[in-house]
Write a structure and sequence with these properties.
Order of helices and strands: EEHHHHEHEEEEHHHH
Number of helices: 9
Helix content: 25-40%
Strand order of the largest sheet: 4-5-3-6-7
Largest sheet: 5 strands, mixed
CATH topology of the domain at 93-187: Glutaredoxin
Strand content: 5-15%
Distance between the termini: 55 Å
CATH superfamily of the domain at 93-187: Glutaredoxin
Length: 260
C-alpha cells in the first residue's frame, strides 16, 4: 500500500505476538469451519480481531486476509463499510444515542447534546480516561421505547438527558449498570467476541431478555397530533414499579389499534 499524501510505501502491518496469534488462529479456524465458503467468515473474523485490540487494526485485517486467502484490500473494504467495526482506539463502552426521527422528537437530540457537553467530546470521540466513546446511531428498531440509548448494543430505553448523564457517570466510575432489557452489560471487547460467534458464558446471561414495562404510545400520540403524555424511565431491577403515563394501559383504546 502507498500513503497517498506522502507518496511513500506504507510499512507492512506487524503480526500479533506468537501466543496471541496461536490463540486467534484456533478461534478463527472454529469460525471458518461453520461456513461452506470460507470467505463468508469475514464478518465474524473482524469481530474476533476487534475483541483482541478494541478496534480493527491493520494487523487484524492482515490476519483475516491470511486466514481466508483474501487481499487486505478486500478485507479493508468490508471493515470500513460497517460501522460496528471501529477503525481507531475507542472506549470500553460505546454509548450510542439514537437521533433518528422519533427518538429525536422525543428527546434524543437533547440527550446527545447534553452528553457531548457533559463528557467534553464530539461524535465518535472518546473520553480522556478511555471509558466512553460517544456516537449518534441510526434506528435500532426500538421506537416504542424512545428515546433510546445503547451501550455496547444493549438497550437503555425511555431515557432523558438526566438519566443518560447518570448512566455515563456510572460507567466511568465502574459502578454496576443494568440495561433495560437483554443481557447484563459487558465491555466492548467482550461484546465483540460474542458477535464473533462465541457464547456468553456468564451465569444467567442467556436467560436475561425482555423489556421492563409496557411500550410507550408517545410516538402514536404524536402522529395523531396529541400530547405524548408523561414518561417514566424504567430499568430492569429498579426497586420502584414502573408508572404508566395517562391513558397507557389495557383500557387505552390506542393500545389495541397500535398492535393491529
Amino acid at each position: 500500500m502507498t500513503d497517498v499524501h506522502l507518496g511513500v510505501p506504507e510499512m507492512p502491518a506487524p503480526d500479533f505476538p506468537a501466543e496471541v496469534r496461536a490463540r486467534l488462529e484456533a478461534d478463527a479456524k472454529e469460525i471458518i469451519g461453520r461456513y461452506p465458503d470460507s470467505r463468508s467468515a469475514l464478518l465474524p473474523l473482524l469481530h474476533l480481531v476487534q475483541s483482541e485490540e478494541g478496534h480493527v487494526t491493520r494487523t487484524g485485517q492482515q490476519f483475516c486476509a491470511e486466514m481466508l486467502g483474501l487481499t487486505t484490500a478486500e478485507v479493508n473494504a468490508v471493515a470500513t463499510f460497517y460501522t460496528m467495526y471501529r477503525r481507531k482506539p475507542s472506549g470500553d463502552y460505546q454509548v450510542g444515542v439514537c437521533t433518528n426521527t422519533l427518538c429525536a422528537v422525543l428527546g434524543g437530540d437533547a440527550i446527545f447534546d447534553e452528553l457531548k457537553r457533559h463528557l467534553g467530546v464530539e461524535n465518535d470521540e472518546t473520553t480522556e480516561d478511555g471509558k466512553v466513546t460517544l456516537e449518534h446511531i441510526e434506528c435500532n428498531a426500538a421506537c416504542d421505547y424512545a428515546p433510546v440509548v445503547m451501550v455496547n448494543w444493549e438497550f437503555f430505553d425511555n431515557q432523558t438527558p438526566e438519566s443518560a448523564r447518570q448512566l455515563v457517570d456510572d460507567l466511568r466510575a465502574g459502578r454496576d449498570v443494568a440495561p433495560t432489557r437483554g443481557a447484563p452489560l459487558c465491555t466492548f471487547k467482550e461484546t465483540a467476541r460474542m458477535l464473533a460467534g462465541f457464547p456468553d458464558e456468564r451465569e444467567g446471561a442467556a436467560e436475561a431478555t425482555g423489556a421492563a414495562g409496557a411500550p410507550s404510545l408517545a410516538g402514536l400520540r404524536l402522529a395523531r397530533g396529541e400530547a405524548p403524555g408523561g414518561r417514566v424511565v424504567s430499568q430492569r431491577g429498579a426497586d420502584q414499579p414502573s408508572q404508566q403515563p395517562p391513558g397507557h394501559g389495557p383500557d387505552d383504546p390506542a393500545q389495541g389499534e397500535e398492535s393491529e
